[in-house]
């Protein structure tokens, strides 16, 4: 699920530059250019937000998103290689090969016999996560803050989908890039949603503070050993809990925003 790889991936390659709305990523053999303006213009986010999602579908989507943590233990227990949820990334369960160094950051043994279904779970989780975010967006006043906040939140959900389609041992960069960026943009999205909310405002701000603390600990992984797997799971668990509770709070559509 895009797990904590972005810093090491960029450091291992030659770096990147941002200029004229374009990110240039320098890999070992080539330069990859991403025109951010063109990328965003090709995605009709406003059209997605306009799709009407019912209360039943919205709340159900959040409950299904939380089901990830109900299903994950099955894949943990079925791992042939030793797997520790405290230290190992969620993405390790979706790695398609067995052995050490299945991807560049995995200096330990990985062997997940049900990796196909784990990756399906990542994809389905990202889809239900996306539906839940759009549902919450529809409960808020439709303005620029809402649109930008929704895009910021959706990046994390899109990262989950990418993680399922592109396992870490297939292409580490594309497996992790959207999930890693999404961890940062999600904080911005929560702040913008909080500014629009009346009911659920302080719940959202409380979750925002919790996630900021977690992101700080995740960044400290660069310098000191910490339980990376636990930190990653806590980030997603708190995120899923936020959406589920807020969807219930806003379910009657009264006083959702100022």
Descriptive notes:
The protein is mainly alpha-helical and 258 residues long. The protein has one domain. 60% of the residues lie in helices and 7% in strands. It has a three-stranded antiparallel sheet with strand order 1-2-3. It has a two-stranded antiparallel ribbon with strand order 4-5. Helix 6 packs parallel to helix 10. The longest helix has 25 residues. About 14% of the residues have low confidence.
Brief summary of the model shown:
The chain is mainly α and 258 residues long. The chain has helices at 6-12, 36-41, 45-50, 55-66, 68-78, 115-138, 144-165, 172-196, 201-220, 228-249; strands at residues 15-19, 22-26, 31-35, 99-100, 109-110. It has one domain (6-249).
Note the topology.
Layout: H1 6-12, E1 15-19, E2 22-26, E3 31-35, H2 36-41, H3 45-50, H4 55-66, H5 68-78, E4 99-100, E5 109-110, H6 115-138, H7 144-165, H8 172-196, H9 201-220, H10 228-249
Antiparallel strand pairs: 1-2, 2-3, 4-5
Helix pairs in contact: 4-6, 4-10, 6-7, 6-10, 7-8, 8-9, 9-10
């Amino acid at each position: 699920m895009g797990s904590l790889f972005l810093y090491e991936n960029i450091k291992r390659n030659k770096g990147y530059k941002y200029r004229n709305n374009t990110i240039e990523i320098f890999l070992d053999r080539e330069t990859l250019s991403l025109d951010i303006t063109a990328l965003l213009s090709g995605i009709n986010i406003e059209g997605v937000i306009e799709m009407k999602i019912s209360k039943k579908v919205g709340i159900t989507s959040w409950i299904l998103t939380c089901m990830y943590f109900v299903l994950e233990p099955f894949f943990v227990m079925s791992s042939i290689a030793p797997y520790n949820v405290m230290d190992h990334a969620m993405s390790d369960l979706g790695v398609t090969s067995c052995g050490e160094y299945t991807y560049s950051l995995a200096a330990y043994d990985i062997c997940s016999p049900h990796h196909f279904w784990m990756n399906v779970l990542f994809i389905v989780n990202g889809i239900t996560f996306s539906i839940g975010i759009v549902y919450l967006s529809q409960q808020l006043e439709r303005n620029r803050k809402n649109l930008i906040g929704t895009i910021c939140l959706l990046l994390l959900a899109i990262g989950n989908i990418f993680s399922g389609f592109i396992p870490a041992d297939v292409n580490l960069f594309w497996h992790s890039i959207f999930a890693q960026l999404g961890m940062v943009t999600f904080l911005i999205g929560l702040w913008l949603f909080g500014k629009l909310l009346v009911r659920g405002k302080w719940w959202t701000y409380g979750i925002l503070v919790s996630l900021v603390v977690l992101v700080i600990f995740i960044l400290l992984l660069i310098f000191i050993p910490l339980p990376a797997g636990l930190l990653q799971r806590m980030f997603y668990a708190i995120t899923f809990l936020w959406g589920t509770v807020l969807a219930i709070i806003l379910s009657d559509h009264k006083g959702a925003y100022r």
